[in-house]
Design a protein that fits this description.
Two copies of one chain form a homodimer. By secondary structure, the first copy, chain A, is of the alpha/beta class. The radius of gyration of chain A is 27 Å and the shape is elongated. Chain A contains 13 helices and 13 strands. The longest helix of chain A is centred in the N-terminal third of the chain and has 17 residues, at 95-111. In chain A, 41% of the residues lie in helices and 19% in strands. In chain A, strands 3-2-4-5-6-12 form a six-stranded parallel β-sheet, sandwiched between helices. The first copy, chain A, has a six-stranded mixed β-sheet with strand order 8-7-9-10-11-13, sandwiched between helices. At the A-B interface, strand 1, helix 4, helix 5, strand 3 and helix 6 of A face strand 1, helix 4, helix 5, strand 3 and helix 6 of B. Strand 1 (4-8) of chain A pairs antiparallel with strand 12 (334-338) of chain B, so a sheet runs across the interface. Chain A binds a DNA duplex (30 and 30 nucleotides) through residues 24-26, 34-38, 40-41, 44, 46, 48-52, 55, 70-71, 73-80.
DNA sequence: GCGCTTTACTGAAACGCTTCAGAAAGATCG
DNA sequence: CGATCTTTCTGAAGCGTTTCAGTAAAGCGC
């Protein structure tokens, strides 16, 4: 029995209020003694139409009294477009770095008067997901990682999305792309380890399926950095559990590695502990580099070297979205986000 | 210059397709040579009306050819209600435990045919936020932490939300409440430390503002557990930075504490490292307990004792939501989620 | 061939909002 | 005083769906 939900009897059972239907602008109009048009003009501060002060007040009072809240669907149906920016929520927890970026982005977009909505399409894949998003008729769709092909982009555009922006390591036909340079992350790590004199270099690749979109380019980056040198690259599958790390560490002598890029700080920390428990000393026997520059990485001993990743400022991405929405016909922009720098601490 | 966004010229500039207006069900009807009603019946598989197989096929083909995607706003406008469950996205990153819970919940709700939407209302507070949510006319609103008063609940209900469920440590009038027993977390930690013979007990309280909703009840829980004993409780404000932890650790001799509840594993780890750097030994000089049972807590030495928190299964919460939506008049349920158990490792 | 049911569909209304075109009433002007 | 302008407001259309009520055609029993 994994958990318990205990119902507590409520002390005061409030009389269920009669289910009045929700007030519409027509109700407001009736109460204020004006037309629906006037209500709309007043509540939206429409500048093209002048409404006298007394009327304005009556409308506002009526709206207040009824607790009127406009109906977003009706509004955007009439308007023919929305100010909604859809962001498929990643189904993999991606850590504090990313969620802070999301926050910043949302803030920036809301400044530009967009409404950011995170939409989880759990089971759906590919075009099915795109269809589901398209039903909401968002002004723009911001796709964080993989999971959307050119077909999906086409579906979204056909259904009126004025901008599709992808955020990942690959460009997608038809969409604006913000290329996050995951390869660069691997490249920086690989180059650093090589420069420290390491030659037999392992690369942790998480077994968790959702992380492949990150791990693949990072691995490629390490490979790229070492191409043409005498260094070798060994792929190290690792699940995020202590036992998996212990198993990997137990094979260490036979692997004969003198350095590891740990995919990110969390996996690196996990592996470091397992290695130390196996009697492998870091960095003497094996150097270790993580990525993401988490605070926790500084708490281990030796302190974890890491690749600091600079995500684009939310404000800039928000402006890209806004530009794209304003000018939907323009050719998709492709931006390269640079931001991998090595933070050298004690583990390498 | 915190980051760089480099624009890469696109190789192939695809000719901007003429902005055909997005196809509606009327277009599908025209192409298939049937009425809009028929299109609706076919595409929704309406069981009450029989449509012949050839007609069905023609409609489906037409829809496919045009790339028709229904308009959610129009649909829910007509229907008078939606299957949308709104979840205000917390603006504080709340760690892997919580985000896994969210995932599970979304999955469970989508099984019940709800659409889960996370909505960030960054700047807004209290009733303003409730208003913004109400505009979307969700079937239910699921409010994770604080930030919604009885007034907000009233606004939502008046605008047609059939269920408002709060998820936190306080009950809110008019809403179904799932009380997550943060006090229990503190209580368990406090009792454990007392049982281990500790009497001068510190409690870390994060300075990050968004975390107060958690830290307050946890602190109360520790106090509650120690009430009537000879133990003392000392509040230890701590920001999530190394310097803050170092400053706190430097004051350790004068504080004279023999135990600390670290709010959660992350803060506990931060503090543990600072204490060790200060020459304080854990657990001999000072015992330490975290919370959340993160994997990383097992990686430090000594291994971190922690309070394991069992969140409700997403499936059960989803069922609560569904029940509430089906029967909006019912008195709000209050459930108590029990789930704090101490995991004793080496740090206490 | 007549009434009846069944089948397969269609017309039109309604959901709540915005906005265009116009109207009532007063102000201004020649 | 009639014509014109300004101010302040209103009527009605329309956004894309769903669905109720209705209808034409066909089938059936007699």
């Amino acid at each position: 029995m994994p958990y318990v939900m205990v119902q507590i009897p409520n002390s005061a059972a409030p009389a269920a209020p009669q289910p009045r239907s929700v007030p519409t602008s027509a109700d407001v109009a009736r109460l204020a003694g004006v037309s629906r048009a006037t209500v709309s003009y007043v509540l939206n501060n429409t500048s093209a139409v002048r409404i006298s002060e007394p009327t304005r007040r009556r409308v506002h009072e009526a709206a207040e009294e009824l607790g009127y809240v406009p109906h977003a669907a009706a509004r955007s149906l009439r308007a023919g477009h929305s100010r909604m920016v859809l962001m498929p929520a990643p189904n993999v927890p991606i850590g504090p770095l990313y969620s802070q970026f999301i926050n910043e982005l949302q803030w920036a977009l809301s400044r530009l008067d967009y409404t950011v909505v995170q939409y989880a399409s759990v089971g759906l894949r590919g075009d099915e997901a795109a269809r589901a998003w398209a039903e909401l008729r968002p002004a723009a769709v911001l796709v964080p990682v993989g999971g959307l092909g050119p077909q999906g982009v086409a579906v979204l555009k056909r259904s009126g999305a004025r901008a599709v922006v992808t955020l990942g390591s690959e460009r997608i036909e038809g969409a604006h792309s913000l290329l996050i340079d995951h390869e660069g992350v691997g490249r920086v790590a690989g180059a650093h380890l090589y420069a420290r004199g390491r030659r037999r270099i392992g690369v942790v690749v998480p077994e968790e399926p959702g992380l492949k979109v990150f791990s693949k380019p990072r691995l490629d980056g390490v490979r790229g950095a070492l191409e043409g040198t005498d260094a070798t690259v060994t792929v190290l599958p690792l699940a995020y559990e202590e036992e998996s790390a212990a198993r990997l560490a137990a094979r260490w002598p036979e692997l004969g590695l003198d350095a590891v890029f740990g995919f990110n700080d969390e996996y690196a920390m996990l592996l470091m502990r397992a290695l130390q428990d196996e009697g492998v000393t870091v960095p003497d026997d094996t150097a270790l580099v993580g990525a993401d520059d988490l605070i926790l990485g500084r708490l281990l001993r030796p302190r974890l070297s890491t690749v600091h990743i600079e995500l684009p400022a939310g404000r800039d991405l928000a402006e890209l979205v806004d530009r794209a929405v304003r000018n939907p016909g323009a050719t998709p922009e492709t931006h390269h986000v640079l931001g991998a720098t090595l933070v050298h601490r004690d583990s390498s």
